[in-house]
């Protein structure tokens, strides 16, 4: 086999009532790329019509494994083991997923159309006709991580606080938001105003995924395996994918595809920082006691009070159980000196023990988070808030108390 697969013909754009459609022939296989609108009943109907036509012997769709599971089982997110989520450090990702899901739900309620209806139609029709279904999109978690690492560090907080703040604060979804959803999925539409002006954001969000999905096609639906493949993607990906697919495909696409899944490891500096802080604080205590006992105990007291009070107060914002608040006040000063465990983990564990989520909390989770007060009403989402607020409070307390100690000793 040569380094590349059969040369493709130039893409041909065809008229389509629901969205643009391009067909690229590679060897004996035709790939029909259907650009859909993610909030469109017409797109869903067109997907059903094309699959029912019998022209295709395989269907590829713009979904990853996790999004496919969420679409097939909307309650999957709420059925996860919360304690494992906190232990694995996935609380932030789950909270972001819930926030994006809340945005989807509000769009559905206002427009009368569930975002992703065309993907659900593809799932149902391929299952009914027993056609191979290929998931070609990159995992949403990997995309978020690559976005995070691709933008400059000073833009990260504003980017993701804007993402969560915007999704959580708007009770009404604007007509502009719905229009943007017709070009891309929830993630793309949320970042669209940033991506249009930022190459560092556009690359992992759009262009990398264009290439990634073509590489997945080269792996799962290479020329010669199927006669005619229907590729259902958002209209925003149509042009980029058609350009990649019209070029010679790599004979071994896996290495390049895997390279697009790599997330850069945390900087050694950031890994060492918690331990360095611990050493500096303990050194500060030692210097204080070496000068006089009273000063040493003063520094220890300030550390406990500042760190504990800020962490406990932060959990009050999440309306944590009184026992959770008290436990956080006691635990935060100690966990801040032990990088292997965080105050948020302790706070969430106590909150789960005091207010164990009930079956109805999981059943109503996706609906509750569509409004701001629902995040506090539902025990699952409130536990996530307890974890996040305790973590942020402890971080603030560590820095403030640390500077206070340094100022007392050397100011």
Outline the biggest β-sheet: 6 strands, mixed
State the order of secondary-structure elements, H for helix, E for strand.
EEEHEHHHHEHHHHHEHHHHHHHHHH
Beta-strand proportion: 5-15%
Gap between N and C termini, in Å?
Answer: 71 Å
The assigned structural class equals alpha/beta
Rg, alpha carbons: 25 Å
Mean pLDDT: 81
Count of alpha and pi helical runs: 20
Report the principal-axis shape.
elongated
Question: In the residues, how many domains can be counted?
Answer: 2
Give, in spatial order, the strands making up the sheet with the most strands: 1-2-3-6-4-5
Number of strands: 6
Transmembrane segments: 272-289, 301-320, 326-350, 383-406
Keywords: Membrane, Transmembrane, Transmembrane helix
InterPro entries: TraB/PrgY/GumN_fam, TraB_bac, TraB_PrgY-like
Organism: Halomonas nitroreducens
Features:
411 residues; alpha/beta; 20 helices; 64% helix; elongated
What is this entry, summarized?
With 411 residues, the chain is of the alpha/beta class. The protein has 20 helices and six strands.
